[in-house]
Amino acid sequence: MEKYIEIIKNSYSGYWNYLKNEILFQNNWDNYFYGLMIVSLLVWVLEILFPWRKNQSKFRKDFWLDFFYMFFNFFLLNLIVLIALSNTAATFFNDILGLVGLSISNFQIFDVDMLPKVLGLLIFFLVSDFTQWNTNRLLHRIPFLWNFHKVHHSVKEMGFAAHLRYHWMEPVVYKSMLYLPIAIIGGFDAQDVAIVHFFALTIGHLNHANLGWDYGIFKYIFNNPKMHIWHHAKNLPPNTKYGVNFGLTLSTWDYLFKTNHIPNNGRDIELGFEGDESFPQSFIQQEIYPMKLKNE
Description:
By secondary structure, the chain is mostly helical.
């Protein structure tokens, strides 16, 4: 137990020092804080210059709530929960395997360091994106997880920062689902993760932005605003009751597994979910919403 307590303490202090350096001493291209700010500002400018819903305000409904979510989920949440959780979970998993004389390296299929850089990055990206596509499906299909995912689907007017409105439990699920697939490949360094992350971050911002783009022929590869808005549609046909268009960065998985649904351009469809009229409007109430349901 002492070992796990020490891991949690080191995780907090290590991430806090990292965060201070990210904000105060920007000296590398993959700086997370300024990368997020630059991507967000650029996509917001695109929304202002090329608005799809022209009557939607630049500071749309819940703009500032989503702006707060952006900083809470991408910075404070990591400091409070995810770094310590990830480090302790990884150690615990390896300790369990050690009881039977195994380690995570026994499950490693290959090391991407042995592959050309571009191929290694592509494999990392594809494995991550497919796992996250499937995780998104589970968030819609499992009632317990759906109650957490409702926070993301409570968005009523779409804009870039809606990408970052989600309950803190979601990244716990995503990271848990990603741990084993990424571990059995192995060999990734921080810059590999940063490259894939910033690409996915940009596509995710664009997917939620007030933009009427579908990228032409590339819509069958990349998720896009005209496709993703149907993922947030309040009213869907009965045969799609668990949702549609689950892709995060790639749309390919939805086309391959027949979960795609784009009956029209969707510009003015109603967003949300059944019963969202009574869904909490404040950050605190949205965060405790799933726990309140459990106690009722």
